[in-house]
């Protein structure tokens, strides 16, 4: 409920700015055109994953993954890291946060392991692993346009070195923090029977069809909405009681909407000019670090997408845009609102009864975020 309250306050503040003329109507329309597909995608993909989880899809995936780990916790953890990385690169960070988190939690519990290192791996890689391709993150798509529409291969060539560093550093930190539990062994439990094979097959088929459609070039909200409607219809026939208002992440939608509107209002009164002075100029390693760190601070202060939009005018070259992406993609690991993926991840954990205090999350982020951003930016400067 606090999330919705904060979002409502920000929405009211943004609405006041629009009514008083501080935020021009043209800017408001442009903002709406940019963000409504994101919000609709989040809404639809959350419904899909909730229904797929109710059908037992994630439990079955967890059972198979546990067998591949062959009783070694560290092997299982690396498999989870691989899944999170591939999912983020090709399906985007929000998809990873929503789709993979239930798999990870069920997997750890099914194996008798602490779910926290696995859950942290998912959310950190959902953010830091989103540097390689344009489809990995909405900020990348925006930057690709600002770069002059390089091909995905050209984009990947620029981002490859920092992308590798941004994946390796968080994994190293997690292994150090949780090395005792990750060096343990586990026994694979017995398989759990699926309650409704029809629901399971429909859920598996819909998710399997959705994955390639999300990278097909279609606007991602279209296949996500279609998948939600199909699964909703199946559940309406087979298990109507699962369909409830609580499936919709309305609190997160309100918060995200408020953040977008409020930051756009600040941008209208000169936020971009101030940030340009802070972020500096030039393409030396120090200049790139300055921009990347500014992006990291901005993302943790106001969310990564508004931070990118505010700082984009200051990143006037492909190399500087790449540094900005490092800051706003790999840097938002400290505050809960730094990225929508983090909020989605936490919602999934809460719904499954896994607790992680925001205070502990932020303390860990204060260590790993600057380290990741600095080393990734240096890799960019060295290999660009």
UniProtKB/TrEMBL annotation:
Is Ubl conjugation among this UniProt entry's keywords? no
According to the UniProt entry, its GO molecular function terms are:
arsenite transmembrane transporter activity
**Transmembrane intervals:** 34-62, 74-93, 155-178, 198-215, 221-238, 250-278, 321-346, 358-383
Q: Which GO terms describe its biological process?
A: response to arsenic-containing substance
Q: Which domain of life is it from?
A: Bacteria
Where does this protein reside within or beyond the cell? Cell membrane
Q: What is this protein called?
A: Arsenical pump membrane protein
What species was this sequence derived from?
Answer: Microbacterium natoriense
